[in-house]
Write a structure and sequence with these properties.
By secondary structure, this protein is α/β, with parallel strands linked by helices. The chain is 42% helix and 14% strand. The radius of gyration is 25 Å and the shape is globular. The structure holds adenosine-5'-diphosphate and zinc ion (ZN). The site of adenosine-5'-diphosphate has 14 residues, from loops. Its EC number is 5.6.2.4. GO terms for molecular function: 3'-5' DNA helicase activity; ATP binding; DNA binding; four-way junction helicase activity; hydrolase activity; metal ion binding. Its cofactor is Zn(2+); Mg(2+).
Amino acid sequence: MLVEEKDALKERLKEIFGYSQFRGNQETIIRNLLDGKNTFVIMPTGAGKSLCYQLPAMLREGLAIVISPLIALMKNQVDQMNAYGVNARFLNSTLSKGEITRLKKDCMNGVVKLLYVAPESLNKEETIDFLKKVNVAFVAIDEAHCISEWGHDFRPEYRKIKTMIQNLGDMPVIALTATATPKVQLDIQKNLQMEEADVFISSFNRKNLYYEVRPKKETKKQLIKFLKDHKGKSGVIYCLSRKKVEEIAQLLNVNGFKAAPYHAGLDPDVRMKNQDDFLNEEVDIIVATIAFGMGIDKPDVRFVVHYDVPKSLEGYYQETGRGGRDGLEGLCLMFYSHNDLNKLEKFNKDKPVQERENARILLQEMEYYAESPVCRRRQLLHYFGEEYTQENCGMCDNCVHPRERFDGTEAVKLVLQTVKQTNERFGLNHLVNVIRGVEDEYVKSYGHFDLAVYGKGAEEDADYWKSVIRQTLIYQYLEKDIDNIGALKISERGEKFLKKPHAIELARDHDFTTEVDEEEES
Ligand code: ADP
Ligand code: ZN
C-alpha cells in the first residue's frame, strides 16, 4: 500500500488507534520502515515505540513479525491490538498443538497482520519452516538491548535472531529499545548486521522526574516518613529480594498504607491480582522485585523508590521511568549503601568471568552515579550518550541542594595532562596512581614515574582524584574510548581547554562510607 500523502498516514493513525497526532519522531520512523529501510529506534519507555511497528504492520502487505522477550507482555499487546480491531496473535510455548496448527493456517491465509514471537520459538526449525511459507512484511525486534552482553538484560537467544531472519529471506528490520548506551547501540547494530540502518534517537530526558539519592540509614523510618508525605498517592517500591519485598509490604500495611507485594515467587493468581489491584487503585503501593513493571502502563505513578541499589543505571532508568508517565510529578528516590553494592557483587560470584566483569562495570557506574555531586539528570543522560547542558536542572537533589564547590581548573588541567602524557591509553585507577605518585607495578612497567605529571597531585587522596576524573568525564573534557574498554581519551572540548583554559567549578562527592544501617545488616 502506498501512503505518500502526509495526511493519509495520519488518517490511518486516527482510524485504527484513535490518535490524532504522532508523538516525537514516530512518523519519520514509520515512513522509514515503510520505505523498506532498516530502522533502529532508541526511545525512552512510554514514548510510544510499539506504534512504530504496529501501524506499519497494518499498512504493509503480509505478516509483521515482532520478536519480544516476555510472554506476559505479548499477551497484553495482543489483547490491546485485538481491541483496536487488529488481527494480532502470538506464538510461544503456552500454545497447544491445536492452537499452533490453527495459528499457522491463519498466518498463511493472510488473516493475521501481526505475530508476536518469543525468541525461543523462532529458534525452532518447525517455526522457521512455517514462516518461510508466509509472506513476511518485516521483522521488529523489541527490547533489542537484550542482544548485548554490555546491557542490563542479556538474553543469549537474542544472539540467534540475525541467523533466523536470514533464513526468512530479505526484508526490512526494525530494532527498538528503551535503553542503549552508545556501546550497547554499537553492539546491537553489529549483531544484527545493521550498521547501515537509519538510527532514530529520542531524548531520554524525563523533565518531570525528580531524582534523589539518600544514604541507607534508618531506611524504614525514612521510607515511612516519605510515604506519609505522599499518602494516598500511587507508587512503586523496588527491593532486591523476594524476602525483602514481603517484609516491606507487611511493614507498610502494619503502618496503615495500602500496599501489596509483587515478585516471581508468588502464586501467579496472587501476583496478577496484586498487579490488577494496583492498576485499579485498590492498593496505592506495590512493593516489588524488578519482575514488576515491563509493559505496565499506569500513567499516574507518583513515586518510584529503590529500597535497595539497582544492578545498573539502565535498569534504574527503566524502573524510575515508570513514574510520572502522565507528565506530572514523579519522585525517584534511591536508598544507597556500599553494602548493597557488595551484596550485588556476591550474587555474581558463580557466573563466568566475562559476565562477572560486565556486571561489575555496571555496578561501578551505579556507584559513580550515587556518589557524584553532579546533576543526576546530566549524569543519566550522559550515560545514554546525550549531553544535558543546563547548568541547574532544578529537579534533582544535587541541583536543589548543591554540594560545596571549589575551583577545579588546575585539577582538571592536571588530569588532562596526565591522560595526554600517558597517550590516552589508560583508565581511571592508573591515572590516579600517576597523579598521586603511587609507584605500583603498572607505573613501574610503563616507566610513568618519569612523567612530568607524576606525583603532582600527591596532596589529595585517591577518592578526590577519582571524583575529579569522573566529573571531567561527565562535563565531557574526557571521553571513553569505545575501542579500548576502560581507557579515557581527551575530547575536542578537552583539547580546547588545554589550549585555552577557563575556570571550572567542581564539587566533592557525597560521602556514603560512614553510613551503616544496623537494621539492614541482618
Ligand atoms: P513504549 O513501548 O515506548 O514504552 P508504548 O508503545 O507502550 O511505549 O506507548 C506508551 C503509551 O503511549 C501507550 O499507551 C500508547 O497507546 C500511547 N501512544 C503511543 N503513540 C501515541 C500517539 N501518537 N498518540 C497518543 N498516544 C500514543
Ligand atoms: Zn539536576
